Predict the structure.
Amino acid sequence: MRKVGTYLLTYKWVVLLVFLLIFIQSLSQLYLPTLMGDIVDNGVVAGDIPYIWKIGFWMLVVAAIGVVMSVLISHYSSKVAMGMGRDIRRDVFTHVSDFSLHEFDKVGTASLITRTTNDVTQLQQAAIMVLRMFLTAPFMLIGGLIMALSKDAKLSLVIFIAIPFIIVTIFIILKKGYPLFKAVQKKLDRLNLVFRENLTGIRVIRSFAKEPEEKERLNVANLDLTNVSIKVNRLMAFTMPLMMLLMNMTTVFIIWFGGFRIDTGNMQIGDLMAFIQYVMLIMFALMMASMMFVILPRASVSAARIQEVLELELAPLTQGEKDLSQQRGSLQFDQVTFHYPGAEEPALKNISFTTEPGQVTAIIGGTGSGKSTLINLIPRFYEVTSGSILINGVKVTEADVTDVRERIGLVSQQALLFSGTIAENIRFGKTDATDEEIYHAAEVAQAKEFIDKLPNGYDTYIEQGGVNLSGGQKQRLSIARALIRRPDIYVFDDSFSALDYKTDRQLRMALKEETEQATMLIVAQRVSTIMEADQIIVMDKGEMVGVGTHDELLESNQVYQEIVTSQFGEGEIA
């Protein structure tokens, strides 16, 4: 909470201005009951009409000052709260952008979305309440007590008897509220997760006719959140009536004892009316404090969740300054071993190979053999446990990570497109790409044909995730996006799986001409995709069990023979 609270320091001068405005507003509110008492004692009782008009005018002036101050307080409080929320979201996003895949897995995407939206909103609301109420409450409480004591010190004893009951009520609410607010945020995380999975996986859910089960899963998550929220609202509903009861009982006792004070001549009617108004202000200040103590636990939970993200220690990512432009297109794995965090067995063990510019290196193996893990090590999504990876003859740990990634054109296993036009998605690989470069990249990626058939061509709008395109179309646009940046190393992680054999072959032929000055690394499931590769690396259980051409491996490597047999039958080996 303390670290998140430091964001308010950015707006310290505006906060001080709000503090001053609240002070002026409090003075105006505290002065009004005194003016009202004067009207009653010196105007109404004495029948002095001009005095009533005079004091009434000053009451209007003081009330107008209070209204102006209130408007300004609302304006600047909102400005501070919204600015604080903007700064927190910016810093959280910047920090999350540096996460490795391990940190993303640790926190969870759904939870990160909740923390940057709902949790930040809770903090913004709390900031507004703090600036508008929490600062007002002390002024009103202290000022009201001083003014009440000045009117009648003995009658003020009623107030001091009531205050402990209110403090005890606030403490009980605080103690019961914090765990409930914490539970609400966790249940909200869960609901967001289920919603997200259902919306992104709607095709799978429908294809397996799992709508009833998913609806039930959503109902369970929704009901859990509802039940906890009901408990929170029940606590809130109990708070206000109890505070009103205490306030009204205090008022009754004041009127009762005040009547005796008037009968004995120790107090005037106007003073009693002013005294009651000051008691109302004191009680109102305590009610504001009670509301703050209801809101602060929820804000505290949200602040802790945001702080957890901001303080999450990132996996060490060493930065170097060595230049990667001395060579172009070489990639080397030197005795690379990699453990996932917390795993007992290595996902990759003693991987060593070299690929030079103009070469096509293919990686094949069964599910779980470590192919995608190997690919993720090249752009430093994960750090190797031991060994080293060299790009253009330089260890990736000795070069700037941004420079390393700019040398790589990665097409991931899941073709991800962003909302926007086709041209904007291809240009994502190179911001300053010309139209001619876009057209050329699309043509090489075998995407030109289907783009030309679209009503708006390259200006066709792609929905989020590319849901209005087929799997093969998304893969080809992802390949075009990688091609347009002309990197030193092309990495295709099973990026041809959605293409038919004809398109697959045409694409590989076009790529061979396009990437003559770069190296190409292909991860594939289909043997037909990699048969013409210069070298094929066979993976099994995280280890390299064979390296060679298709014909060499077909003769000597049992794992490769099994893969070929599963796809072509015994005839291919024969």
